[in-house]
Amino acid sequence: MSIDKQSDIAANIQIGPTTLGMVRIYIEAEGIELPLDFDPDEAEEIAEELLAAAERARQMGDSPAPAGKKKR
């Protein structure tokens, strides 16, 4: 599956610090529990990537739809 392909899979995500000084992103979906631990510097890099992707998504949402396709 590519990053740009829509999916029907639902998941819960939790983010917080661990007692060992790491940042944990915990993803839970049907039959899957995935704890991902990052040092604080890596977590900041991920946060920056999320913010950049959100900004690009906003810009894409503001652009006119290609001919023959409607924006939702």
Helix content: 25-40%
Total DSSP helices:
1
Walk across the major sheet and give the strand order: 1-2-3
**What is the general shape?**
flat
**Largest beta sheet, briefly?**
3 strands, antiparallel
What kind of oligomer do you see?
Answer: single chain
Overall average residue pLDDT? 89
Strand content: 25-35%
Q: What is the N-to-C succession of helices and strands?
A: EEEH
Q: Give me the count of strands.
A: 3
Compute the gyration radius: what is it? Answer: 16 Å
How far apart the termini lie comes to 22 Å
Low-pLDDT segments: none
What are the key terms here?
single chain; three-stranded antiparallel beta sheet; 72 residues; 3 strands; alpha+beta
Walk me through the topology.
Layout: E1 11-17, E2 23-29, E3 32-38, H1 40-62
Antiparallel strand pairs: 1-2, 2-3
